[in-house]
Please model this.
Amino acid sequence: MADDRLSVIFGALADPTRRAILGRLADGEATVTELTAPFSISMPAISRHLKVLERAGLIARSRSGQRLSSTLRAAPLQEATEWMERYRRFWDASFDRLDAHLRQAEPGREAD
Model:
């Protein structure tokens, strides 16, 4: 079940427009109109992106009178980060082993 949730989160993050929207929402809540401004796409297209982000749990939408705003929900990003952290540790250890191997091999290198 957690892997399915991660698939939805990573699927939402796969699109550069959605990542840009999340970046904007990291600065604070915004309306669809405010989120549409920096893009050369329509308001309905932004709304579709927002629905994907909301399904992934990356944003929350709320209405206050006529104003519909979106806010960032960071918890799913933390889940994705924790999943990726395991692989970062793997690559760090691999590079540390490579570095150690290269340092051992260096004194015995033949001159060109």
Notes: Residues 37 and 43 are 9 Å apart (CA to CA). The domain at 2-107 is CATH 1.10.10.10 (Arc Repressor Mutant, subunit A). The first strand starts at residue 30 and ends at 31.
